[in-house]
Design brief:
The structure holds two protein chains of two kinds.
Chain A: E1 3-10, E2 17-24, E3 28-33, E4 36-42, E5 46-48, E6 58-62, E7 69-72, H1 74-85, H2 98-133, H3 136-157, E8 162-163, H4 168-181, E9 192-197, E10 203-206, E11 210-214, H5 215-218, H6 224-239, H7 242-261, H8 267-295, H9 301-317, H10 333-341, H11 353-360
Parallel strand pairs in A: 9-11
Antiparallel strand pairs in A: 1-2, 1-7, 2-3, 3-4, 5-6, 6-7, 8-9, 10-11
Helix pairs in contact in A: 2-7, 4-11, 6-8, 6-9, 7-8, 9-10
Chain B: H1 13-16, H2 26-36, E1 85-87, H3 91-107, H4 113-126, E2 128-130, E3 133-137, H5 141-168, H6 176-202, E4 204-206, E5 209-213, H7 217-233, H8 239-252, E6 254-256, E7 259-263, H9 267-294, H10 302-332, E8 334-336, E9 339-343, H11 347-384, H12 392-432, E10 434-437, H13 458-462
Antiparallel strand pairs in B: 1-2, 2-3, 3-4, 4-5, 5-6, 6-7, 7-8, 8-9, 9-10
Helix pairs in contact in B: 3-4, 3-12, 4-5, 5-6, 6-7, 7-8, 8-9, 9-10, 11-12
Chain lengths: ~375, ~475
């Protein structure tokens, strides 16, 4: 079937229009002026410039755009649109044909799967590879600079904050505990514990053997074994290069999430993914502490008691509400407590009472 | 071969051909065309008139086939005539498109946004009618997507390096990378804006002739960044300097085919107008600060608050008024070939649009609040019922999940309202306020215009610059 209609033709070289006759058949669109045929274009090489609208002109262009335009008057637009849509192949707006939409959706699904797989499988492998081959001296320097930066930031944020100056006995006790923990399997780094005065019950591990221990946590420790549990956990973070891995994975995950979502729409997903990474590292550090204390035959029930106290503090602050593990940076506390509670080791730490008191009162000026 | 240099025709096709004829002999068709091919363009009409009066006046949305703007209200045709720049977009269409785009974007976790932006641009461009012919946007979602992927891949090592350097610095210098980043982003903002404009121009056609933005994005950024610093140092007094300098650079590098645009605006004129606004701003802010200092007693606490609220609206009005003037000034000082643009945009149009947007936003918030109140009530009863036997984790989830769903509904709903009733309405008012004087002569394609960017707006998208 042929469909004939008049139109204006723009050749893409000038803005001057020519009045032409357009013949639309099943395969081609023929454009002719009084002097003869201007061109014949296969339907698959044509695109609608925009979606046809009532009382609006209809415009056609080539898929490989050279500026050529065919403009049908508003009164002819709907019949021309019908003729173009109902042939095979149908002429559609760019990226809007059924075939294009199917291709687009498949592409988006494929791309999303690729990004998700990269985040889930690729990032941990790549990040571990980089962290494992990162120069150790640089990691140590990074840890020292990080410690200074954190202390500087905490000083600005918390009025009561101060770096504590514990007695020599406290340092001796720390070195003794580290030596006992590493007796059967040496550690990669020399450990330097910095005590800071802060009400927050927390401890931090930085790359290259730097550990920050807050007095808020020291205050609720009842034995050197509990202290050893915390220290072994933080050493686990350092030995497993969690500081580096965290830094690299944060950047990689943020950029990969941005690839999909662009702006802030995916902040919750980014948060959950980051929490997932952190949680895995916490589990790994727990496992490291568990195995190290088991090798050194140091009892872990005191660490379980300490975790119990921390758990109570967290629950009191949450007013009876408990978010699922996926929203937390730490593994389920009940499971952690159970793991340490059921450990078979029964030995103690080889430090005397005076050294323990010096350690416990490291921030008591 | 005869040609017309402007506009659409209204030739009755029945005079030329028998409509829907099948297998018409080609020779006869050519013969018929010959007799009709010299029609004048001026009296032709591409956009069909509606049956009722056209020209909706003010900034009321148009009916189908009728333009926005200040057209005549006597029923005379207000578009497709020389001197007219009309906008035919309807808020109903934009709302529908926005809803579909948002739905698809959510379903595809955000990736569809590039195609959503393309669809919206295609709609808006195709509704801007100059001398009877609409603009055309030929960009593709895929180009925007690839542009963004490329820029992201380039930025990753830069971000890694900045993070690493930042972590290695002494404590008192640790803010340096952040400061550097802010300065770099401020500079790159101008680069991104110019490059995004270059891409948009390269995908804009009128009567088959491509627009183009020449010039250097780096040079534009130097001008923009430099004048921003001057503005900052002068406490805003020299703000027009940045506008005039960047607008001149951009306009003088704007082409449609081989016809170049020119901007004749001067700093003096803009400064003269800005000085009044700036003086009012200083006066208002100074008065509020003085009131705060004087009204220190507990019985006078309401005074600075009331003055602050009044000052806020006063300052907003002054800014709005100045920006509307600036838009008119920019239009009046812009030439393209033999034509000169103008605008009759009024501040009252913007105020109407903002009030309407606030009304719609309020309605959206009320509807959502009612839904939350109705459905949230059931949750509260369930949560506070001890016999329900919910664990603390289940309670946590029961609060978290509805909160996330509510946020996921509120944010897109307000985005849709914002685009449809604020951004689009302002754009429609801007465009339909414009006109031109002079005759549109033939445009010719520029060979250089074929060297077009293959991907687009990656940097702008990376900085989430937004806009249309």
């Amino acid at each position: 079937m042929n469909f004939n209609v008049t139109a204006r033709y723009f050749d893409g070289k000038t803005s001057a229009a020519q009045n032409v006759t357009v013949i639309i058949d099943d395969r081609d669109v023929l454009i002719a002026d009084p002097d003869g045929e201007i061109c014949k274009i296969a339907r698959q090489d044509l695109l609608l410039c925009e979606k046809p609208e009532t009382n609006r002109p209809l415009r056609l262009r080539r898929a490989h755009d050279n500026g050529m335009r065919i403009v049908f008057d508003a009164q002819d637009a709907s019949s021309v649109a019908d003729a173009l849509r109902h042939g095979s192949p149908a002429v559609a707006v760019d990226e809007a044909s059924r075939k294009s939409m199917t291709r687009l959706i498949s592409g988006i699904v494929g791309f999303t799967v690729l990004v998700v797989l990269t985040i889930w499988l690729g990032v941990p492998v790549a990040v571990n590879l980089v962290a494992d081959h990162y120069p150790r001296q640089s990691e140590i320097a990074l840890g020292k600079a990080g410690r200074e930066q954190i202390l500087f930031a905490l000083e600005q944020l918390e009025d009561d904050f101060a770096v504590c100056t514990p007695k020599n006995a406290a340092h001796r006790a720390v070195q003794q505990i580290v030596a006992q923990l590493s007796s059967s399997k040496p550690f990669e780094y020399d450990y330097d514990v910095t005590f800071v005065r802060s009400k927050i019950p927390n401890a931090l591990a930085l790359p290259g053997g730097q550990v920050l221990l807050f007095s808020g946590l020291l205050d609720i420790m009842e034995s050197p074994e509990a202290f050893t549990g915390v220290l072994a956990h933080e050493i686990g973070h350092s030995e497993k290069h969690h500081g580096l891995r965290n830094m690299f994975s944060n950047i990689a995950v943020t950029q990969l999430i941005r690839l999909i979502s662009g702006g802030s729409a995916m902040v919750p997903a980014e948060f959950i993914l980051q929490q997932g990474y952190t949680r895995d590292m916490e589990r790994e550090a727990d496992q490291f502490a568990f195995e190290t204390m088991e090798r050194a035959n140091i009892r872990m029930t005191d660490t379980a008691v300490l975790f119990g106290k921390l758990n109570k503090t967290l629950k009191d602050g949450a007013h009876g509400l408990d978010l699922p593990e996926m929203f937390s940076s730490h593994p389920d506390m009940e499971a952690r407590i159970a793991q340490f509670e059921n450990a078979p080791s029964t030995g103690t730490v080889d430090i005397n009472g005076q050294d323990w008191q010096a350690l416990k009162s490291a921030c008591d000026d | 071969m005869s040609t017309e240099n402007t506009g659409p025709r209204n030739d009755d096709p029945n005079k030329l051909l028998s409509e829907n004829s099948t297998s018409e002999p080609t020779a006869n068709i050519y013969d018929d065309v010959t007799s009709q091919n010299t029609a004048s363009s001026q009296d032709h009409q591409v956009y069909m008139e509606g049956p009722t009066t056209s020209g909706t006046g003010g900034n009321e949305p148009p009916h189908t086939g009728q333009p926005w703007g200040n057209g005549p209200s006597d029923g005379a045709p207000s578009h497709g005539q020389p001197g007219d720049i009309s906008y035919f977009g309807r808020w109903q269409d934009v709302l529908k498109l926005c809803c579909w785009n948002t739905l698809w974007t959510i379903l595809t976790l955000g990736i569809f946004r590039f195609w959503a932006k393309t669809r919206m641009r295609r709609y808006i461009w195709s509704n801007i009618v100059i001398d009877g012919d609409a603009l055309e946007y030929t960009g593709r979602g895929l180009e925007l997507f690839l542009g963004f992927v490329i820029v992201t891949l380039i930025l990753v090592p830069v971000i890694l390096a900045l993070n690493f350097i930042g972590s290695m610095l002494p404590a008192h210098l640790m803010m340096l990378p952040m400061i550097f980043t802010y300065i770099a982003v401020a500079f790159l903002f101008f680069v991104a804006t110019y490059r995004a404009t270059r891409y948009r121009y390269s995908r804009t056609f009128w009567r088959g002739i491509r627009a183009r933005l020449s010039g250097s994005a780096f040079k534009y950024a130097l001008i923009g960044f430099g004048t921003s610093i001057v503005t900052l140092l002068s406490l805003g007094l020299l703000a027009p300097l940045g506008f005039i300098a960047t607008t001149r650079y951009q306009t003088d590098n704007t082409w449609i085919g081989d016809t170049q645009a020119r901007f004749n605006g001067t700093f003096g004129a803009a400064f003269k107008r800005w000085l009044k606004s700036w003086a009012i701003l200083v006066l208002v802010v100074g008065s509020v600060l003085a009131l705060c200092a004087v009204a220190s007693g507990p019985s006078m606490i309401w005074l600075p608050i009331a003055a602050g609220v009044i000052a806020y609206f006063g300052v907003a009005f002054v800014f709005l008024n100045y920006n509307v003037w600036l838009f008119r000034y920019q239009a009046d000082c812009t030439e393209m070939g033999a034509i000169r643009f103008s605008s009759n945009l009024q501040t009252s149009q913007y105020i109407n649009i903002i009030l309407r947007f606030l009304g719609v936003s309020l309605l959206v918030v009320i509807v959502i609040a009612v839904l939350v109140w109705v459905f949230g009530g059931a949750y509260v009863i369930l949560l506070s019922n001890p016999t329900a036997g919910l664990t603390s984790q289940e309670k946590g989830m029961m609060i978290l999940v509805p909160a996330i769903i509510t946020l996921l509904v509120i944010a897109p709903a307000l985005n849709i309202a914002g685009f449809t009733f604020l951004v689009h309405s302002m754009l429609a008012a801007d465009i339909s306020s414009m006109g031109y004087q002079g005759e549109i002569t033939d445009l010719h394609a520029n060979a250089e215009a074929q060297n077009i960017p293959r991907t687009g707006e990656g940097l702008a998208e990376a900085f989430d610059l937004g806009g249309i």
